[in-house]
Amino acid sequence: MKTITVLGASGFVGSAVLHALARRPIRLRAVARRRCTPPPGRAETTVVTADLTDRAALADAVEDSDAVVYLLLGDGGWRAAEGAERVNVGVLRDLVEIIGDGDGPPPVVVFAGTVLQVGVPPREPLDGSEPDRPVAPYDVQKLVAEQLLMKATADGRVRGISLRLPTVFGETAAEGANQDRGVVSAMVRRALEGLPLTVWGDGTVRRDLVHVDDVASAFTAALDHPDPLVGGHWLIGAGRGDPLGEVFRLVAKEMSGHTGKSPVEVTCVEPPPHAPETDLRSLTIDSTPFRAITGWRPEVSLSDGVRRTVAALTSSVHGKVRT
């Protein structure tokens, strides 16, 4: 039986990956800073609670792993990366040094990057062949970490694969897991409070939105087809390019259908002066290279994903009110 270790197993994406892997007959190690509940399934799951900035704790957590899925995210989310470099870069550096010194075949490391490592999108769609010119601190740190992984791969120490993720949305897979902090869930929470949903500009800016379950299946697909993927970065996306104005109106419609109340208003506003240029540019993804190798494709439609997100967040808020 293979041993697969998920670092960041209590996170939004991490909990979804953990649930997907738990269905397999493997040894599954769920590692997070706070304890998480092992999901049901065929896997022999071990939960490890550890601060992975402690190098010794990291070494214990990944010992004898055949594959490691790296889903760590520094405190405060991706917009607070200035203070999160130790997690976003330092732990990855420690990881490749630790597992690269072991005996036997080099372990596979599947790393979660971001499509914005490219910086301001130079064209649509992105396909992974663009030069990297990241702007935001988080995107810079992800690129640095990815480069460390690829250098260790070239040196034969690990077998690194980077999946560059777009805007991920959806409902949390596990009780107690970190909630999605992205734009879709933020608008669902505003609609729950009866507040208008504000979209910057005229609402035509597009985002490539992928449901978290589809992102989890991309990680399992990478683990199933490592050989042709090792040493490269691969873009994950639905390829739709959903206009944010339409997405917000869909959120308002689904919330109305779920609660029986009138839909909240969707209004267009001028972007604030501090808005980064990457937030004002459309972005769609061509995942053809990754799909051709793995057979992966997104299965959750935007409407179904928004419906599920609305239902989950509404239930969560009502549950808190009852208690």
UniProtKB/TrEMBL annotation:
What PANTHER family does its record include?
NAD(P)-BINDING DOMAIN-CONTAINING PROTEIN-RELATED (PTHR48079:SF6), PROTEIN YEEZ (PTHR48079)
Q: Recorded GO terms, molecular function? A: aldehyde dehydrogenase (NAD+) activity
Protein species of origin? Amycolatopsis alba DSM 44262
Q: What are the residue boundaries of the NAD-dependent epimerase/dehydratase domain, all occurrences included?
A: 4-237
Q: Which domain of life is it from?
A: Bacteria
At the highest ranks, the source species' classification is: Bacteria, Bacillati, Actinomycetota, Actinomycetes, Pseudonocardiales
> What protein name is recorded for this chain?
NAD-dependent epimerase/dehydratase
* Cellular component, GO annotation: cytoplasm
